Amino acid sequence: MKATFDLPEELYRQVKARSALEGRPVKDVVIELFQNWLGKVPPSNKESAEVEFWEGFTPPLQHLVKSEHSDSSMTEIRESIIAGYNEKA
Does 46 score more than 70 pLDDT? Predict the structure, then answer.
C-alpha cells in the first residue's frame, strides 16, 4: 500500500541522509519504525550485515565542511564546501 505523509523538511533531510549513509531506502526505515512502534521485531535480512560496513563512513568531501554548520540544507552544504575548497586552493 502506498501512503503520503507531510513531514517537516529538516526531519526528512536528516532521515534521508542517515538512510543513505546506511545504504538503506527510506521505505525500509519507515517500515522498521512502524513495526517497532507496533511492538513487532523487524525481519532480519542479509543487508543488516552490509550496514556495518558503512558505520564510521566519512563522505569524501567531509573535510571541506565547517564543523560549526548546523544547517544541513543543500545550499548551506554547497557553500561550505566551496568555501573550504577555496581556502585550500
Answer: no
